[in-house]
Design goal:
heterodimer, A: 333 residues, alpha+beta, Arc Repressor Mutant, subunit A, SH3 type barrels, six-stranded antiparallel β-sheet, globular, B: 474 residues, mainly alpha, two-stranded antiparallel ribbon, elongated
């Protein structure tokens, strides 16, 4: 009796795992989601100047090639795409539909970055799931709540409600020569492992960097006062606008975390990596360029550190002081 | 042909792209810049604008955040606060109990009888409602009236932010705020007050963590239960000369276990359900200053003590009526309470408790302080003993722990029941006052439910595991 009971339990658990896997493979995915994901893929490949057929589509959407072929037929029939010399191209209708989805996706990512504490590496995945369930009205509300943002946290422009989009004019990071300066304008958020590598090394859109050295397997860059190494694959996913000499901000600054107790410094700026509420809180304390700041006390575990500025004592964690930049002022005598 | 309005909007849209995302930053920057310019013109300073704080402040800061002296000072100060609270509260508590329970209760009962009120009305209102309120006031008021002013004293002096500063390293690792060390300490006095104290945390995610985990601080109402049960059941497990140390050690371990649970649960919450809440760390360390005694007395007595006590009373009165009723309303010859106890017993045994304990925790929800009196009353009721206590539905307490031990052993209690009761007393739903306060503070049914149900689920799991392990090794 007990044995049967245990067997039954094991069986149910196995069934549950199997069903979950099926969901993961998207056998049961709704047609609407499939259509929208296909349009988005078409839009992206047109942006990247690559072609789409049932093979690439089946790979990207994790469905069978048969189903992908059927999907393409359906898209053509509903006037969202058209066949041009054997290649699938978006029609104007299809493009504006795709841009609507892209808009929702980027608004959601912006929302996660500004108003939640969801980890950076998860924004894209959760937005992929949620984007299909947000209609135009909700998207408008979301945009209003965020103050009609221009770009998502990856630096991508957010399409307007009318379906217009501003295109960035960056080039891949790997095209820059040693000692060149540039501003990062965009970081591709797919594939996941490369995005993770990039975001974890502390690189973000809006960052000014300099190429320090080029190696066989990667590039060494300097940004926010630190040297970072990134692989060639990751470097291809970073778009950059080269800077002229007069546009370059002086690189002789350091993170606030490098300030020793008793040393004094002047704030140069707050990194773009501090976003949303966190950033506003720091600005409210008066941490703006030109502010005098002095490291004052270390707590028991050396983190947080208390800093004196504008006559008050404020404790900051290392993951904040790493992203506040300073220029040291000679030791007080 | 586009009209002028559309053209302006189009132009503005184009300019937004050129200005970029930095607008907010640049605005603030320029505001600070002009404020500084103005202040330089009109404010004159003796020290020629050089930043420096008072030396005495610096000295105190150096000592309380020092690697060697910081922690001992913190433990000594907090221990002193708790010691003064526990020792100091005994006298006013027993005085209040004498007046409210021993003297006023019979007087009011006589008054009702002389007015020829029906027996059920006297029972429900006086033996039930009034007695519950009297009990809550006499055990709750004195500790709070001592603890809160002392705690507020440390706060007003400026010491508590330094505790948060020192403890932040640990709390950062579990995704919480260093100030949670303060709300947790406050929770050792009273969870409802601890929940309110979470207002000092201005980051939404960290504030919710502090509110939900506050119940893991063993509050004033639960210390007496822990001490009584430990002295009866834990003391017996070791030779007599170790009994005192063993039972004190057991109570302290339960309190420490609570702290450990609060950290683990904080860690789990911030990585799952609380991911969607924004988070920002900030901690100001204000200058030290001489405490303002009158203000401390006012905020701690009016804002904290009376406020919490009033909420407790509001819940205690109806709960008292319920307690009396379940013991006195009979269905098929036996009371509702006994029906429930018989039904719940087999399930309760699975987690090493019994039906009496389960029922007591349900009906004594207004305050943890009345759990033991309710357990004693229900034990007498279900054993059908006459001569102990004050009748069905009337809560009572015994002065001698040995008598309590004898009664509980008659009720079938073992050392395992004792250990599990101590665990369950730590890990069960917050009292109704705290639940209501959580709702008031979060304005969310969802978080109130999480804060209420999470500890019960943990309590059942922990008690179940303990029981199974106990049977495995005995």
């Amino acid at each position: 009796m007990t044995l049967y009971f245990i067997l039954l339990t094991v069986l149910i658990v196995l069934m549950a795992i199997w069903i979950k896997k099926m969901w993961g493979r998207r056998w049961k995915i709704s047609d609407k989601e499939l259509t929208e994901d296909a349009l988005k893929h078409l839009y992206n490949s047109e942006e990247n100047k690559t072609d789409t057929d049932e093979n690439t589509l089946s790979k990207v959407l994790s469905i069978s090639t048969k189903r992908a072929a059927k999907l393409i037929k359906k898209l053509e029939a509903s006037g969202l795409t058209q066949n041009v010399d054997g290649k699938q191209k978006l029609t104007n209708n299809g493009r504006s539909y795709a841009l609507k989805i892209v808009r929702v996706h980027r608004l959601l990512e912006k929302y996660f970055a500004e108003n939640t504490s969801i980890n950076e590496t998860e924004w894209h995945k959760i937005a992929e799931e949620k984007e299909h369930r947000i209609d135009e009205n909700k998207a408008r509300e979301l945009a209003m709540q965020l103050g009609n943002p221009l770009r998502d946290p990856h630096g991508d422009p957010i399409p307007t409600a009318k379906g217009e989009i501003y295109s960035h004019n960056g080039i891949p990071l790997s095209k820059l020569e040693t000692n060149d300066f540039g501003n990062i304008v965009h970081i591709e958020d797919e594939p996941k492992n490369l995005y993770k590598e990039i975001s974890e090394s502390g690189i973000y859109p809006g960052m000014q960097i300099q190429i320090k050295d080029k190696f066989k397997d990667g590039i060494e860059i300097k940004g926010d006062g630190k040297n970072k190494f990134i692989s060639n694959e990751a470097a291809d996913n970073i778009s950059i606008v080269p800077l002229n000499k007069d546009e370059i901000i002086k690189q002789d600054y350091q993170p606030l975390s490098s300030l020793e107790v008793g040393e004094e410094a002047e704030v140069v700026g707050i990194s773009k990596a501090l976003r949303g509420m966190q950033r506003r809180r720091l600005l409210d304390f008066g941490i703006v360029p030109g502010t005098r700041i002095r490291a004052f006390l270390k707590s028991l575990g050396n983190d947080p550190v208390a800093y004196e500025l504008r006559g008050t004592l404020i404790a900051l964690r290392k993951n904040q002081s790493d992203y506040i930049f300073i220029r040291k002022i000679g030791n007080d005598k | 042909m586009k009209n002028e309005r559309e053209l302006i909007i189009e132009e503005a849209e184009k300019l937004r792209w050129e200005v970029g995302d930095n607008l907010h930053d640049s605005l603030l920057e320029s505001i600070y810049k002009s404020a500084e310019e103005i202040s330089r013109k009109v404010v004159s300073r003796n020290d020629a604008g050089k930043i420096s704080r008072k030396n005495i402040d610096h000295l105190i800061d150096k000592i309380v955040t020092n690697k060697w002296t910081g922690l001992p000072i913190m433990f000594l100060l907090l221990a002193a606060v708790f010691w003064i609270t526990i020792v100091g509260a005994n006298y006013p508590s027993s005085f209040l109990a004498k007046v409210l329970v021993d003297t006023l209760h019979p007087l009011m009962k006589d008054l009702f009888v002389s007015l020829s009120s029906p027996e059920w009305l006297t029972g429900a209102l006086i033996d039930g409602g009034y007695l519950a309120v009297a009990w809550v006031v006499s055990v709750m008021l004195p500790p709070m009236a001592i603890f809160f002013p002392l705690f507020t004293l440390l706060e007003d002096f400026g010491y508590l932010p330094r505790v948060a500063f020192n403890m932040d390293g640990i709390y950062k690792r579990v995704g919480a705020h260093g100030k949670q060390a303060l709300t947790m300490s406050m929770g050792f006095g009273c969870n409802a007050a601890g929940v309110i104290a979470a207002r000092i945390i201005d980051s939404p995610r960290e504030r919710l963590v502090a509110i939900i985990t506050n119940n893991f601080s063993l509050c004033n109402g639960r210390w007496p239960t822990q001490i009584l049960i430990a002295s009866i059941f834990i003391g017996n497990l070791v030779p007599p000369y170790l009994a005192g140390i063993a039972s004190a050690g057991a109570v302290v371990s339960i309190a420490v276990l609570g702290v450990v649970f609060s950290l683990i649960v904080s860690w789990g919450l911030t990585r799952t359900v609380l991911k969607g809440e924004p988070s920002a760390f900030s901690l100001e360390l204000p200058p030290y200053r001489p405490p303002r005694i009158l203000q401390i007395l006012y905020t701690s007595l009016i804002d904290r003590t009376i406020f919490v006590l009033w909420r407790a009373i509001v819940f205690a009165f109806p709960a008292g009526i319920v307690i009396w009723s379940v013991a006195n309303i009979n269905v098929g010859g036996i009371s509702i309470a006994e029906h429930f106890i018989d039904w719940a017993n087999p399930y309760a045994m699975l987690i090493g408790l019994n039906g009496v304990i389960i029922l007591a925790y349900i009906i004594a929800i207004p305050a943890n302080e009345i759990v033991i009196p309710t357990i004693l009353m229900l034990t007498v009721l279900s054993l059908k003993i006459s001569g102990i206590g004050a009748g069905a539905g009337v809560m009572f307490e015994m002065d001698n722990p040995a008598d309590v031990a004898q009664l509980l052993k008659l009720g079938g209690w073992t050392a395992l029941t004792g250990i599990n009761l101590m665990l369950f007393s730590l890990l069960h739903n917050p009292c109704s006052t705290t639940i209501y306060t959580i709702y008031k503070e979060t304005k969310s049914i969802k978080w109130t439910l999480v804060a209420t149900l999470l500890p019960i689920v943990l309590g059942i799991l922990v008690c179940y595991a303990t029981t199974q392990l106990w049977y495995l090794f005995t």
